[in-house]
Amino acid sequence: MKTFYILYVLTLVGTCATPKYTTKIQNLKDSIDLVDSTLVTKYASTITTEELKKHLYTFSSDEFEGRASGTEGHKKAEEFLKSYYINEKIGSAYGDDNYFQTLPSEFFNDKIACSNNVLAFIKGSEKPEEIIVISAHLDHLGIDKNGNVNNGADDDGSGTVAIMEMAQAFKLAKNEGKGPKRSILFLHFTAEELGKKGSEYYTMHPAFPLKNTVTNLNIDMIGRIDDLHKNNKNYIYLIGSDRLSKELHYISEKVNTAYFNIDLDYKYNALGEKNNYYGRSDHYNFANKNIPVIFYFNGEHDDYHKHTDTPDKIDYKLLQKRAQLVFATAWQIANQEHRLTLDENNKFLN
Asked: Does any domain span residue 24?
């Protein structure tokens, strides 16, 4: 059963819960037809705990020195991702072997060395100009003053390896003639920990026109549980899903109900929520450009922003299921007949 908190419910009731609006919402829900259920199940199953664990133990190892932006450890992480996409024969957004978008040091007021976003790309078969962005940040906090490596296994190694597995699944589908109709951009941001600078730079200098970006599905920590869910780990927080596109929100819910039955928790989606998670990860820079977003998040835990955030503490079955949810949601958006609609343009709401 989905968790709706009182503030969210009161906001909905107080603003729009008239019979007419209720009918509009029901019509919108009824208009969403899930596509390719057999294919979704087939390719989602290629996202495995074994591969997630293998990638994450490497990506969050001491070798990468905590992946602080502008450091040698971060450069190793960039190269790790580039090599992965080359080996999987997943192309670059820029063509050839150029997978990097460089943020110059002056973008950081010369306090940080230049650092790269990493972009991989699968071109859509029917509507290639329309882009679904799946993102996570690759950077973390580096080495602390006591010499401890902040491995960042959950933050955001979990999101990083989830994207790697999703990219592989979409590429396998494409190889078998079942590739996405719309294009998918797999976008690994630098400098999230410095104030979402990687996504800020990308939205200032996009690889594809932002008007062609259909949605941003952003993943930041999906491998652990927080204290509120110690007795129910089958959950994920969703933030922002209904802010710009109710269609996105109900697609997400319909996909989840059809395939996964994860408890979608909207606690942190409430307007005025004190932690302001809606504004704290990379999706926010897309939302500011009027692009619909979903932020997937497991909440904070005792190891958040500590050197004890290590890969042995990840729940890999949970990570797999959550990654599969994002994959299936992206599949629906990429392959349904019409482009995802903003509320202001949605015929069912106006």
From this structure: no
C-alpha 323/C-alpha 24 separation (Å) is: 31
Please report how the helices 49-59 and 159-175 are oriented relative to each other, as an axis angle in degrees rounded to 10: 130
Whole-structure pTM value: 0.94
Spatial neighbors of 252 by CB under 8 A, at least 6 apart, are 238, 241, 264, 294, 329
The CA distance from 341 to 248, in Å, is: 8
Question: What is the total count of domains within the chain?
Answer: 1
1 found inside a domain? no
Q: Any idea what the CATH number is for the domain that residue 199 is in?
A: 3.40.630.10
Query: Minimal CA–CA distance to 101: which of 186, 167, 213?
Result: 186
Average pLDDT on 232-256 reads 98
Q: Specify if 228 maps to a domain.
A: yes
Q: What is the pLDDT of residue 95?
A: 87
Angle separating helix axes 37-44 and 316-335, nearest 10 degrees: 140
At residue 18, the pLDDT reads: 56
pLDDT tens track for 252-273 = 999 999 999 999 999 999 999 9
